[in-house]
Write a structure and sequence with these properties.
globular; NA-bd_OB-fold; Single-stranded DNA-binding protein; about 150 residues; single-stranded DNA binding; DNA-binding; mainly beta; single chain; Primosome_PriB/ssb; OB fold (Dihydrolipoamide Acetyltransferase, E2P)
């Protein structure tokens, strides 16, 4: 049995873009996961790891407008490493082939402007509040005697 799966929660580092490559569409964006820890000397260290997230699944194209810089998301998918050489140095990037996305909060909980052809967002009706009258002590009567109790 083999399992090659990653779950990562972080913030989008670069807005999602839908690319066309040789007749195929795919979605891409970067995911930044920051962590803070103290080193041996007790000094606070902050580190950010970036992941390149990609997918060719059409269902993710529909939420691309919501995948904006700063939004918190959960990404699930297959991880892989891509290496390349630049200026004589070898670099690597971590790529996630997305299987699932769960949206979290955005920096200001903003919604994107309605895209061409997209239906405008509807505002939910305010919830109605119901109140119940409190029972008074005299509103309950005891009809059962102590002999009627099963215990």
């Amino acid at each position: 049995m083999k399992l090659n799966q990653i779950q990562a929660i972080g913030r989008i580092g670069k807005d999602a873009v839908i690319h066309n490559h040789q007749g195929n569409q795919f979605l891409s964006f970067s995911l930044a996961i920051d962590e803070t820890y103290k080193n041996r000397d007790g000094v606070k260290v902050e580190r950010v790891t970036f992941y390149d997230c990609v997918s060719n699944q059409e269902r993710f194209f529909k939420v691309a407008n919501w995948l904006t810089k700063g939004r918190e998301i959960l990404v699930e998918g297959k991880p892989s490493v891509r290496t390349y050489e630049k200026d004589g140095k070898i670099y690597g990037t971590i790529k996630i082939e997305i299987n699932n996305i769960s949206l979290g909060s955005s920096p200001h909980d903003q919604r994107p402007a309605a895209a061409a052809g997209a239906a405008p967002a509807t505002q939910a009706a305010p919830a109605t509040q119901t109140t119940t009258a409190a029972a008074t002590a005299g509103s309950f009567t005891s009809e059962a005697g102590s002999d009627d109790l099963p215990f």
